[in-house]
What we know:
The protein is an alpha+beta fold. The protein contains nine helices and 14 strands. The protein is globular, with a radius of gyration of 20 Å.
Amino acid sequence: MLRKTKQLKGLVIRASDGEIGTVDEFYFDDETWVIRYLIVETGGWLGGRSVLISPISIVDIDWAEKRLDVSLTKKQVEISPPIDRHLPVSRQHEAAYLGYYGYPLYWEGPNLWGPAFYPAGLVETPSASEEALANRIREESPDSHLRSAEAVIGSHIEAVDGEIGHVDEFVVDDEAWAIRYIEVATRNWWPGKKVLVSPAWIERVSWTNSKVYATLSRERIETAPEYVESVPITREYENRLYFHYGRPPYWLPGASREEWHPHLEREVVEII
């Protein structure tokens, strides 16, 4: 199901033996646009320090109770590798963290989660031996593609022919933990209008200039189907969105527009 990141914030994280804390932030991979870690505030339990929770450990999401259940114990979390939110998370740190929990490295493989399409698929994947993991940690580059989601919120969206708005939110698939859409607020040009843009259409992110560069024209973004926050995102809406942008949807990777839905243009005209 598609959820906005602000709906995820504040969710209670519950381990097998009690509550750990609440979701405060996210680290996402700026190459694949997948949320790799939840940053959890533990409150008084661990002296207020933050801990990382990987989606690999999530076993259930109870939206009614606003809770995430994870397959961890409080003790495991307590002695897990620490993080400093003021410093970048290196690949070595990630390898040490994943090795601590016995998870394989998600960047080794062709899919969003390495050998798996979903984080849950990594639970049954055997991890490397301690010796092999120690060698991998030493070999890994210090560079990481992890970025804070909050650091991107508010960044200006630069179309191929000029600025068009700013990043207002992210829309996340809570099964794959992939960022499916960037919510673009265009109110500086069209008061009140918001539209969605896929990360697949983003060329790059400039962290120094706080700009997100899209491979789309201003007109294409301006005339996209309006996104209304109070209305759930349906597959019908997504089909219209992808047809408007002339790109195949994420659920049919590699398909051409004709292969995706040869009759969609007629259907969209009729709907409009």
